[in-house]
User: What shape does this take?
Amino acid sequence: MAGFWGRRRREEEALAAQDADLARRAEQALVAADERIRTTSDELAFAQAELGDSLTADLKAALDAVRLHLREAFQLHQLNHDEIPDTVEELRTRNARIAQLCEWAESLLDEKTGTLAETIAKVRRAPEVTAQVRRDAEALGARIPQARDTIARLSSRYSETAMRRIASSGDEAEQLIAFATHGADVSERRRAAKQNEEANLALETATEAVRRAGAMLDAVEDFEIQALRAESTLANVVADSRGDIVAARNAPQTPEVTAAAAALEAALGALAPTGTPNDPFAELTRLRAANSALDDAIAKAQYRMQHPLPSVEQVQHALDDADRQLGVARGLIAGHRGWIGADARTRLAEAERLRVDVPGMISAEDTREQALSSARRVAQLASEALQLAQRDIDSSRPQQQPWGGDGWGGGGRRSGGGGDIVSGVLGGLVIGSILDGIFD
Assistant: This one.
């Protein structure tokens, strides 16, 4: 008994220490949050003077919300120290709420002041960014004549469809550069007018315009390299395709192989004559597709030659065999339900599920192999269900005893023999006292 009271006293002392620590943390958090509000208010005033009201609106709204909720925290702290006695539970609940409110306030102010710091840094870097935009625009403008000369030179070698991706790149890049310069001017004027939000937007737009103009001019230079690579690859694919057409003559002559070979020959015949403008990208795409189609058709024909498609009769015979085995398994399990375990029942259920889908797959050639495989799987599962069911019956069948012999205990009660056999056969149809009455 002394040990019980000693343990309880230690638990009470530990809980009192926790409450005291919570009260101390609540007071410290309240002081820190109040001081944070005052500091952030000063930061907001400086930011409003530099950025204006629009870019500082989020921080102002956060400060207003924090002040509102911190009033609740001060009220709870006052209740802890008024003249009205409080229970331990009341003090604990208030201090936990104070700590929660102060933690939320600190977190919200951290988020908003961090965002505002990024905005301030962006505004302060604006002159540097504007100068960089002007330098980039000037450098890109100097590349435009060279880009136009490249486009003109390549237009004599490649077709209009190939050149479509870069034909207007020079003009579009020139327009983007002019827009970027104009955006930089607008940004400077808006910043001088203390309209920092509009100034930032204009500067971001100018920066994006310069980036896009540079990407367009780079694409003109890259186009020639990509086109030369496409031409080299096209020559290899042409040689490979001609070899595939020859190989197709020795492949099984199915309709698919014949059609695919004809399509590949047509794609080869549609190539632009040597020395005329062409589109190596489009030609390579078409030729690759036709080449792959012929490869697939030959592979399918060779597979079919090695694995002939089963006839409808073969599948139907397999399905008939599966149905016979299903019938035997189904009858055995239905007749001995009381003894059949989960394994046999599961095999039978899976076989019946697969059996439902087989008829719809027999007529179509694409699914006939699957139909034969499914029919064989049904037969296998039915056979397994039959074997498992027989195993369950053999393991559960009691030692046979004559009716009324030693298998019956005194007072007409069953101890084995015929009663248990009937119980296993009938399963849930005849149970408990009914069986007892029969054998009594």
